[in-house]
Design a protein that fits this description.
The protein is an alpha/beta fold and 346 residues long. It contains 16 helices and 11 strands. The strands form 3 sheets. Strands 5-2-1-6-7-11-10 form a 7-stranded mixed beta sheet.
Length: 346
């Protein structure tokens, strides 16, 4: 059973709020800002209710190269409270948004120059999505582990070879630096920060207010076979993918799937790979691992039962698949990611 750290004590009602600063630029991704902002707002609301005080636990600010309206890539305007030059003093948590405009912002230089000056006065330095490129350009990710949106991981790794890019993580912490995957992953990161500050109960309550799954661990995969099932262009292959996901315990050999699709095995394997970018066997194994991961996280079922439920011939077969794809055994994966509520009930 995994060992869990006790929740940190609630802050002194007289303590000043933690300062959370969001850095944005023209054509940023609006959810990179509003998602984490909502998490901190609800975290502050939860703490205020628990200590029966109106004093906020967090104080949030939005900053940019110039104060005033900043247009995001969704054609909305957001008001920046302060310019970079006006943003003074210590910062508890600094979060750099991502978005299509980040590369122009890096070329302009104002954001990266400000990040270099400000970083020594920041307790936690974070990015959401492609905001990692701004931290990287400022030299703040050199020699560190980091992640970004899956579609930009290769570019980050090629542009900044000193960074150990983890393309399959929702978020990554290395020291006081935190980077997250795309868009909604910023909310998972923000929930993790709230949990660090005020404990799991506070993070769960904040997530509940936002009707979020509370909460995806950082090491979980950005990818899901349920998303991959939408990748095929041809409707027959999409329908077959959906059938596979609903029948993981069935015979899912190439011959059986080809028969189900009404195609010859050779033609089926060729079409499936062309449509999805994966062989039928790879897709089936990924789907079974995805289902097994959820059962290991959310239940206390024995590993042998999980293996059988998810279509693996034996627990050893599942163990080999986990090691090959996740670099950990099912037991190790459960120890790291199982819900504390499930673990405590065992």
């Amino acid at each position: 059973m995994p060992r869990h750290q006790p929740s940190p004590p609630l802050p002194d009602p007289e303590a000043p709020p933690r300062r959370v600063v969001f850095a944005v630029f023209p054509d940023f991704q609006v959810l990179d800002l509003t998602g984490p902002l909502a998490v901190f707002y609800n975290g502050a609301r939860t703490i205020a209710a628990s200590r029966r005080s109106a004093a906020p636990a967090y104080r949030t600010e939005v900053v940019a190269a110039r104060a005033g309206r900043v247009d995001c890539q969704q054609s909305l305007g957001v008001f920046a409270d302060l310019s970079f030059a006006e943003t003074k003093g210590p910062i508890d948590t600094l979060i750099v948004a991502g978005g299509s405009g980040v590369h122009q912002a890096v070329r302009d230089g104002a954001l990266t120059a400000w990040l270099r000056r400000t970083a020594p006065n920041v307790r936690r330095l974070c990015s959401v999505c492609t905001g990692a490129f701004a931290l990287a350009a400022a030299g703040l990710l050199d020699g560190k582990r980091a992640t970004t949106h899956w579609a930009s991981c290769q570019r980050l790794a090629e542009s900044y070879p000193t960074i150990a890019v983890e393309p399959d993580s929702i978020y990554v912490r290395d020291g006081n630096t935190y980077t997250s995957a795309g868009v909604t992953a910023g909310m998972d990161l923000a929930l993790a920060l709230v949990e660090e500050d005020f404990g799991r109960d506070c993070a769960i309550t904040a997530a509940r207010w936002l009707v979020l799954f509370a909460k995806r661990p950082g090491g979980q995969s950005q990818f899901s076979t349920h998303l991959a099932a939408q990748a095929a262009e041809r409707e027959p292959i999409r329908r077959l993918q959906e059938w596979i996901l609903a029948h993981l315990g069935a015979d899912l050999s190439v011959a059986a799937l080809a028969d189900h699709a009404g195609m010859s095995p050779r033609n089926f394997a060729r079409v499936f790979r062309r449509e999805t970018g994966a062989t039928p066997a790879d897709f089936v194994e990924a789907a079974r691992i995805d289902a097994a991961r959820r059962r290991l996280e959310e239940t206390g079922l024995p590993v042998e039962r999980v293996a059988g439920d998810c279509g693996f011939s034996t627990a050893e077969h599942m163990r080999r698949a986990f090691h090959r794809r996740l670099g950990a055994s099912p037991q190790q994966y459960r120890a790291r990611f199982q819900s504390p509520v499930v673990a405590a009930a065992e």
